[in-house]
Amino acid sequence: MTRIEKGSKNALMAKRIIFHYLNYGHDTIANLAKKLNLSVPTVNKFLEEMAALDIIKVKGKLEMSGGRHPALYGLNPKACYFGGVDIKNGTVSMAVLDLCGSVVTKTDNIPFVCENTTESLDELCRLICEFLDTVPVSRSAIMSLNVNISGRVNPRTGYSYSYFNVQDQPLADILTGKIGVHVCIDNDTRAMAYGEYVCGSYRNDRNVVFVNVSWGIGLGLILDGKVFYGNSGFSGEFGHMVTYDNEVICHCGKKGCLETEASGSALHRKLCQRLDAGANSLIADRYRANGDITLDDILDAVAREDLLCLELIEEIGQQLGRWLAGMINIFNPDTVIIGGVLANTGDYLLQPIRVAMRRYSLNLVNKDTKICLSQLGADAGVLGACVIARSRAFEDMLE
User: Fold this and answer.
1) Do residues 236 and 221 touch, judged by C-beta distance below 8 A?
2) Are 216 and 358 in a shared domain?
3) For a disulfide at 61, which of 18, 69, 112, 382, Cβ 3.0-4.6 Å?
4) Phi-psi region of 202 (alpha: psi -120 to 50; beta: other; left: phi over 0)
5) Same domain, 260 and 276
6) CATH number for the domain that contains residue 312
7) Which residues contact 193 (CB under 8 A, 6 or more apart)?
8) Which domain holds residue 274?
9) Based on the structure, what is the number of domains in the chain?
């Protein structure tokens, strides 16, 4: 796609038209003019210009009972493409979407150890370049690529403060230079929240709270239909609310964080402590033979209804629900989505969360809030990365 010149007088209108078609699919010139509060000739002029750039194309005719059938216009899915990279605990997933959001190619669970070192950054770039070489479109057709990183990330400046902060240059610029595609970065939970909002069935909800319950805990906010970043891009550090008077040191360096009692890492620690004390479990023999267990081992035991694992999952759900009740009281959201690795336990986690949220939140506030599991599951992060890349690319038209 020939890029629309940044800062041009047509950039704002082009962005409005693109986002209209992203939200509503096909539409006629008359309907588009009405929704954008513009004259039909003005809209027709812009569509002709965007069609010349191969962004817009005729999609057919509007079916009507009589009279002339007006043309339906929509986005050309092949006009440009957007990539996403989702760094997880021990793996990385990658995908490329076309302009309309259809998956061109996706690969999951590539082994990768994320460390705050130059070597780890170089390995990530190598994996991304190898993936892009397999994509059935040219690298020049990929307009933007977003990389999800856990912890503190400032998407506006392109700096990461938790990983890959080994140089003074913004990480987004370093990645752009190494990969050869424009790269932006964002927090992994925020990307998951946006992925659920755009690619799930929540577009009619204006306010959404997404909770990522994985090795740690993150929170993504969609407020009034927009991603909430905070002043420096650091919003959503739900897991580091100091909520307990304990002596457990969180990976952030402080004691008493929510993560220390209600997260995948807390589940792993508590289960190991119980097994060391002689508790019975379906995975007790594996733990004693290997000296450790993985989170996947625990989730497998939950699926087999291991009583000890179920008890611990319920405790975590109760703790999460209690503190999420505060989120409901503050934000009064349409929906609370529970995602992340521990969401794979389904109702074993969801039900105690629901009970605690309703017990500790105000009745008038919680009665209209839906509490549900992630629809996208493990794909939320990588699809969210792609649609963030798309959104940021078109937002940049105004800069």
Assistant:
1) yes
2) yes
3) 69
4) alpha
5) yes
6) 3.30.420.40
7) 208, 210, 220, 221, 222, 227, 337, 384
8) 204-374
9) 3
Q: What CA–CA distance (Å, rounded) separates 95 from 32?
A: 31
Task: Give 2's pLDDT tier (boundaries 50, 70, 90).
Answer: very low
Residues sharing a CB contact under 8 Å with residue 325, sequence separation 6 or more, in sequence order: 356, 357, 358, 359, 360, 361, 366
Q: Which of 75, 93, 112 is the last residue of a domain?
A: 75
Phi, psi of 248 (to 5 degrees): -85, 125
> Of 137, 149, 48, 111, which is closest to residue 385 (Cα–Cα)?
149
Does 68 share its domain with 85? no
Give the separation between CA 132 and CA 176, rounded to whole angstroms: 13
Inform me whether the pLDDT recorded for 67 exceeds 60: no
pLDDT in tens, 146-159: 999 998 899 999 99
H/E run at residue 331: helix 307-331
Do 167 and 256 lie in one domain? The reply is no
Q: What is the mean pLDDT of the chain?
A: 89
**CATH number for position 66:** 1.10.10.10
Long-range contacts of residues 280-285, Cβ cutoff 8 Å, at least 24 apart: 280/307, 280/308, 281/306, 281/307, 281/308, 281/309, 282/306, 282/309, 283/309
Rounded Cα gap, residues 165 and 149, in angstroms: 12
- 166-201 pLDDT tens trace: 788 999 999 999 999 999 999 999 999 999 999 887
Instruction: Provide the β-strand partners of residue 85.
Output: 94, 147
Global pTM reads 0.88
Cβ(167)–Cβ(174) under 8 Å?
Answer: yes
